[in-house]
Each structure stands twice: as C-alpha cells, then as structure tokens.
Amino acid sequence: MLKISASGGKKSERELTKKAASWSFKELGLSRCSLIKIHIKIRELGDYCGSCEELEKNSFSIEVDNTQSLTNFIMTIMHEMVHVKQYINNKWDGDGEEEAWDMQDKLTKKFTNEL
Questions:
Q1: 112, 29 in Cβ contact below 8 A?
Q2: pLDDT of 2-18, one tens digit each?
Q3: Domain 2-106 part of CATH 1.20.120
C-alpha cells in the first residue's frame, strides 16, 4: 500500500506530483511492497533539482524544485522515485545516480505519453 502526501507549491503541482509518484511507484514494480509512506515537498531549492532521503524503514521524504520547466519537474520526481526503489530493494550501484539518470528520461516520456 502506498501513501503519498505533498506540500508546498501550487495545488496543480501537488496533484501532478502525487499522480507522477504513484504512477512511477507502480511502473518501477513496487506495488507489492507493504505500507510505503512518501512525503514530497515542493519548493524552490536553488542549487539542486531534488533530493530523496529515507526517514525510517519504508518512509521517505522527497524535495522537488518547482522553478524548473514542467518536463524537468516531472523528470525530477521520476529520478527521486528511482532512489525510493533503491532504498526499498536495498540495491545500489555506487551512489545510485547512474541508474536514476538512466531511468528518469524513460519514465518521464512514458508518463507524459499516458497523460
């Protein structure tokens, strides 16, 4: 079961964020997981586009910069959701960035085509 919440940003950004995170959760094959909680903070970040941290087992905090273009905003959500997958599966190749960078474009294109 997945529980996603979002704060900050505009209402439309919060709705899109929850939709994109939920979609990528399923697309990344994580639907079988027990209760997963993800809180996504939408705000201006300045020097970086997003971040993901595990707060405790199966509980995550993601930040996404809302000053990016719409495509990059969605891409950042996809990138950070790959990190959620890495945390859940405890499978990291190095720092996990290469896999996240590789997957973000594919996931974003597929998601936006399905909108």
A1: no
A2: 999 999 999 999 999 99
A3: no
